[in-house]
């Protein structure tokens, strides 16, 4: 997809790294939410961000996605430092290159499931017919094609979350940010959503940053970053260092 107003760049520069954090720190008032995060994510990698409640996982995800600016440190995506972009450029980048799945779907209640799944494509300028045709393929893939004309209020939690995953993937993002994507689902539905999300991400070579406190969900990842008291540790790097 086009990167909107952001100049095109080789997504992995020459380092093989798609997204990286260096010395990230963020404080809300006197609460240190993030107190040091350094790691790199490659294209197609599925990385679980784990840790107890309040440890800083969501803050880390929001900094990585350019939603929240860190107080210190840098986030680099495809060779570009996010803080060097204007707000409009960061928004364009989020629309073109990133997909999002949150705990409670956050679908637009007035739109049908099909219109919801097509929304990122429509916002990126794709014509309705083409956007909905692509979205319909993702709804089929996520096994919720039968509710395409329903509104979010008329579907189950599991169906709504699959629609949210279809919406995140329909724009062919290079990174999917998923914050507790199965947190509101029973274990069977949660497992299925994780299977479908990770299969689709592997196929499209999208990287996934998956915030979860459940090891059953983290088991779908390639590696884990553990956040404790705002400090993020890359467990695979530590294992390699031993
Ligand atoms: N917008 C905000 N304003 C003030 N404090 C915040 C804000 N967002 C997060 N915090 C605080 O920062 C710390 C880290 O929060 P964060 O939501 O990142 O943790 P988390 O690991 O994702 O938690 P959970 O698993 O419960 O969702 C917490 O102490 C939280 O209260």
UniProtKB/TrEMBL annotation:
Q: Which SMART domains match?
A: AAA
Matching PROSITE patterns, A to Z?
Answer: ABC_TRANSPORTER_2 (PS50893)
Q: Which GO terms describe its cellular component?
A: plasma membrane
Keyword line: ATP-binding, Nucleotide-binding, Transport
Q: Which residues form the ABC transporter domain?
A: 19-242
Enumerate the GO terms in the molecular function aspect: ATP binding; ATP hydrolysis activity; transmembrane transporter activity
Among its keywords, does the record have Hydrolase? Answer: no
The record, for PANTHER family, names: ABC TRANSPORTER RELATED (PTHR24220:SF685), IMPORT ATP-BINDING PROTEIN (PTHR24220)
Put simply, this protein is called: ABC transporter ATP-binding protein
| Organism in which the protein naturally occurs | Streptomyces albus
């Amino acid at each position: 997809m086009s990167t909107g107003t952001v100049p095109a760049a080789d997504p992995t520069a020459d380092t093989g790294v798609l997204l990286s954090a260096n010395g990230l720190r963020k404080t809300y008032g006197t609460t240190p939410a993030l107190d040091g995060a350094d790691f790199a994510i490659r294209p197609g990698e599925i990385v679980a961000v784990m840790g107890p409640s309040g440890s800083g996982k969501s803050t880390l995800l929001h900094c990585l996605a350019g939603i929240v600016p860190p107080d210190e440190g840098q986030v680099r995506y495809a060779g570009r430092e996010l803080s060097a972009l204007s707000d409009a450029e960061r928004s364009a980048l989020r629309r073109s290159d990133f997909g999002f799945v949150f705990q409670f779907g956050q679908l637009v209640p007035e739109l049908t499931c099909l219109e919801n799944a097509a929304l990122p494509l429509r916002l990126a300028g794709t014509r309705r017919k083409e956007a909905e045709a692509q979205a319909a393929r993702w709804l089929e893939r996520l096994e919720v094609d039968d509710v395409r004309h329903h509104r979010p209020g008329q579907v189950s939690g599991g169906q709504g979350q699959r629609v949210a995953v279809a919406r995140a993937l329909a724009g062919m993002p290079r990174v999917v940010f998923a914050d507790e994507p199965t947190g509101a689902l029973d274990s069977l539905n949660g497992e299925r959503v994780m299977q479908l999300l990770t299969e689709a991400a592997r196929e499209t070579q999208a990287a996934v940053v998956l915030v979860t406190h459940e090891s059953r969900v983290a088991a779908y990842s390639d590696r884990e970053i553990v956040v404790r008291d705002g400090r993020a540790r890359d467990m695979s790097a530590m294992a390699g260092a031993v």
